[in-house]
Amino acid sequence: MKKSNCKYQGILWSCLRVFYCCCCFLVLQACLRMEFQEQKENHLKDEEDDKKQNGETILPDLSVPDKLDWQMIHIAIPLSAIKDPDLVRVRIPVLKYDKKLAYSYTFDDCVVAAYGKAFCMINRKWVDKEKFYHVGQQRSTGFMPPKSLGYTDGCGNERRFTFGVAIWPDMENRNIDSFMNPVGREIGKYYPYLVWRDIVPLLDFGCDIYFHNVNEIKYGNEDVNNLLKGLVACQDTTVKKLGRGMKVLVRSDGNDLYVDAGRKYEDVVFMCASASPDPDIPFAINLRDDKFDLYKKCQSRRYTELTPNAEELMAGIEEVHGTSYSWLHDFSHAPNDFQYILDLFVRINDTYGKDGDDSIWFASLDEIFEYVNFRKNCEITKVVSNDSLYVRFECDLSDVPDKFQYHRDFSVLLSGVDSKNIKIGSGSGVYGLSYAEMENKDLLININCNSSLLEKAERYTKLFENDHLGEKKEDALYFINQLKEEYRIPFLMRCK
Fold first, then answer.
1. What is the pLDDT of residues 373-415, one digit of tens each?
2. Which of the residues 96, 119, 140, 344 could staple to 310 if both were Cys, CB 3.0 to 4.6 A apart?
3. Same domain flag for 467 and 339
4. What predicted TM-score, i.e. pTM, was given to this entire model?
5. Is 40 in the same domain as 141?
6. Cβ(211)–Cβ(246) below 8 Å
């Protein structure tokens, strides 16, 4: 009997040990699961914080397709709108949208006011009273602009003013390890420079970035070859951060060696300076002169901080406006009295923009250079097929490498076409299409071949769907209205 009890006690103790081990295992597993869940939640929170820090419009890659397939780029005019196809004349206007004056504005030295003041004012976003205002920064006091600033595409669709910013991708000093990606610094109301997340909305809405100072601690500023190495380093950093590079150089500190380095660097196609070292460059370039070659030239520009008054600056623009198809370029840094720049933009909008006579094309250096280059090198062919006149475009000979073509849109004028109730078709390489009859009965057609237009329409529409704010709807509609009809209608249904 005792042996039997001992036997049962042994079995009982064995069961208890197994039960204890199982309990310990389950407790350990639960603890590990809780720890894993906590780590996962912390990781998701960190990702969410990163997204908040970087802003909603941050993109992992802003590159463009390596090659533009011209075979997919054409428009189709129904023969019912044409008396004689042989008499249809197709030409590219001197300026995009058939405007009369080209105007550019540049902000030097990577100043965040380009985003916080200029960009926000133009695009009807919150303009904060803080001098330095970044993407995702908490608002203090300020104002919402009453309207956006821009012009139309000649067919009733708004185009916002766009500008350029000379940035410092590789710049450092004794206090800041990297101006555009500083470590250990709060990016807020005390930080005066653009960081990479600030660049993204600028590029989304058509602005551009330019070469400026290299890291002169590493490369100095007295040797052309060293400056060239510095430009390459700036390009490498920019491509790594954004997926796209730069092709315009803004001379730094009056140092013409930067211009010499730009002429040697194959990525640079155009330059500018407060006083150009090129003797044959007029202050206001006449873009009607097809013999004038812009490639590797250095444009002169007007320093507005010497005349910080919108009325006086407008007088200079009015003088140039009197000579059709001229190109004027203004620039500044971020002066304490930034208000005069905002006042100037409003005056331009109200006089020559969408709320004036709508004669100005306010665009970046990149956009204007690309369009002029396209106009000079584009080959146009006409073919009649299947009850339509097909107009095809091709521009394989270009001063702008495909990887730097960020503004793949252009305008054409057609004569000999009855535009009443006309419906124009287009190829699969065309994402945006608008057209309207002009006063002289010519038909203006705007053709947008930027595949990124669809992506931006989708991204900004999703932002609106997630948060039905009026500001986000305006952003979404801005891109949606640039699409051709078959792409535009589904997006409009989502924005009701």
1. 999 999 999 999 999 999 999 998 789 999 999 999 999 999 9
2. 344
3. no
4. 0.88
5. no
6. yes
